[in-house]
Amino acid sequence: MTSAGINRVTASQEEVQQQLERILSSREFRLPERARKFLEFVVTETLAGRRDHLKAFTIAQAVFGRDANFDAQQDPCVRIEAGRLRRELEHYYLTAGDADRIIITIPKGGYAPVFDVISSAAPADMSPLKQSDRASSSGDDNAQISAASDTISPDQADRRLSPGRYWLLAAGAVIVLASAAALLRQVGSPSTERETTSGADNRPTIIVERFESASDGSLASDISRGMTDDIIEKLVRFNDIVVVTAMPRNKTGEASSQPLYALQGSVRLEGSRLRSTARLVRRADAAVIWASNYDADMKVQGIPQTQASLAGDIATAVARPFGVMFQTDTATIAGSTHVFSCVLSYYSYRSEMTVQAHQVAKSCLQQAVKKMPADSNIFALLSLIHLDEFRFSYQLHTKSTAATLDLAKELAEQAVRLDPKNARALQALMLANFFGNDPAGALSAGAAAYANNPNDTEVAGEYGLRLSMSGEWDRGCTLISEAVGKNAGPRGYYEVGMALCAFMRGDTQAAELWSRMSDLNYNPMHRLVLLSILGTLGKKQEAEEQLDWIRRESPALIPNIRQEVARRLVRTEDQKRFISGIEAAGLSVQ
Fold first, then answer.
1. Lowest mean pLDDT across 66-70, 236-240, 330-334, 578-582
2. Beta bridge partner(s), residue 114
């Protein structure tokens, strides 16, 4: 017997096939059709005794429709899809599949799956179940693992898992129990019959159509396929949306509800230049709600990196927070009964930053947590709502209490437990740690969030701010600048970060320009930044105007300036520089 109760025993082909069907039918398995076909193909081939044939070339032809000219070095589609599949299998076994006996994994370094049995789990009816049926289904205690000739034995397949995977499985039960306990504390409801479906069905769905090749030749055709694959890979990292590559179908084979949007585009080669157009179409009326052109020289980075870079730009423009998908048809979606309306309420509130909008979003998310206790995004956004009560207290007229910060951190930790790869959850944990005086923990969570989705401008911008305010100004300011260059929102929010970057470099004139470009009414702290800059520049009269505004609109900030500055700037020398500017403006800081 080995760690986590996994035994070197055999599993029948029937059990493995039923486990595959269970995974594919689960709402917690959120990948598009091609990834599902990938998993089904490698499992079926392994069961048929052809695991040695599972190479990138074979999978590319069978799953991706590539021809005999496929080159895995030039086209990483199989490797990318395998990585996504591994992450999603881990997510499945930490959520809907936490009690399953048969564990299907695809170890790194190859594409052949391995099948293991958790001996501590009772043999169960392995037929596919809807998530809502799981609680009422009962296992067959008399079922036995078949010892007939159709079994998969340890000698037939390398079924060895990494030690980390064993401990991950062992921790699964603990995580589920901890999640349940945290949920009871947070939502305060005694009901044990909560809805446990994931939020996927409530998120807007976008179908990514194959980008057309506007140039003759196989190279343009290959690049168009590669661009499409890269866009999909980058879009699926945004947890606020669902990405599909084919029209969804229900169990009867009929087309189900239509995706809200379609992403279309084309690729054209002009010498060494790669030109691409992209557009987002609302399927209900075929209206083009966004379109843009992209251009790059392939000599600079090479073909794979160029197409990946353009794909990242397109994915960011389409799915970034506060971006086109969150600005279009907001009223229609927000007026529906979908939990996604709470996500829209959150982004609407962050754009407005008013007390009323904050209360509406907070109330909606609190109700959504009860309806969707397995949705990592909802927990993350609720955490950020409470964090805002701590960090934007002078704008929202709330109190920056330790209890508020503790609750925000609990919610963030729960979000990460539900989905360790969710960049928004890790962003919430980063901010909770940062304002909880744990800059090292904050930067660790921020690095993980950025690694999981570098195209999420809010993640990049907030991580850049925490790096900068922790004293790593060069690294942090680069990320903030990139976020601003990609129109990161809310509008005028990251510009104040650029002002701080210029101020700490000693370029006070640029700092003033950036500060005045920020939204000064978004948060009184923005006025405080401009006040320090003006004081450093010796602009007493203009500084007095800002000081008058703070005295009139946010008088509670004045006696707490040193405390608020210390919460945001980790290094003593940065605090002193900032406060000396305020005092030069004529305000004595207690």
1. 330-334
2. 105
Whole-number Å distance between alpha carbons of 435 and 574: 17
Write the pLDDT tens digit of every residue in 4-62: 344 434 678 888 999 999 999 888 887 777 778 899 999 998 998 888 888 888 888 88
Distance CA 473, CA 467 (A): 7
Strand, coil or helix: 294: strand
Mean confidence (pLDDT) of the chain: 80
Nearest CA-CA partner of 319 in 216, 240, 431: 240
Residue listed under structure tokens 């980075």: 301
Going by C-beta distance under 8 Å and a sequence separation of 6 or more, which residues neighbour residue 74?
A: 222, 303, 304
Distances (CA, A) of 10 to 16, 156, 356, 552: 10, 10, 60, 75
The answer to whether residues 445 and 426 touch, using CB atoms and an 8 Å cutoff, is yes
Got the DSSP string for 533-578?
HHHHHT-HHHHHHHHHHHHHH-GGGGGGHHHHHHHH--SHHHHHHH
* Dist CA 42 CA 48 (whole Å): 10
Q: Which carries the bigger pLDDT value, residue 128 or residue 371?
A: 371
Terminal Cα distance for the chain, rounded: 65
State how far the Cα of 304 lies from the Cα of 528, in Å rounded to an integer. Answer: 46
Whole-prediction pTM: 0.63
Task: Indicate the SS3 state at residue 278.
Answer: strand
User: Is residue 10 within 8 Å of residue 47, measured between CB atoms?
Assistant: no
The length of the chain, given as a count of residues:
590
- Name the residue with tokens 């690294």: 475
Q: Which two tokens stand for residue 534?
A: 């003006």
Give the number of other CB atoms < 10 A from CB of residue 499. Answer: 25
The H or E element that residue 235 is part of is helix 218-235
